[in-house]
Amino acid sequence: MRLIRFVLGRIILLVNWLTLPKGLERSEEAQRVVDEKLQDYRLYELTACPFCVRVRRECVRLSLPITRCNVSDPAVKAELEAGGGQFQVPCLRIARADDADEWLYESAEIVAYLRQQFLPQDMASSS
Fold first, then answer.
1. Domain containing 55: what range?
2. Which of 31, 39, 74, 79 is least buried, going by the fewest C-beta atoms within 10 A?
């Protein structure tokens, strides 16, 4: 089973690399605003997880340099479990000023949230 997962993971990564979407082009000022907002975001992931790849592809498409945290690292995994309450990837952590962080766990929910927050309004109707 481990070998099958390894091979499938590498196939997923290869297909992702071959078909990586083009990033959204913003003005320098608009990208700076996005970059600043993303300082409060963390994406907990595994490299070859297909659901994580889906979220990463959307981040590339929207030109979102979100900090990525690989849960293969035991400290990162413990941080995810302690903060979010469960071990599931992908997980998007949105830090809030009042320390009531928001944790999104489903890839479709994460993609929808990122589009809502970062897709320019003039492009939102055509997506």
1. 28-121
2. 74
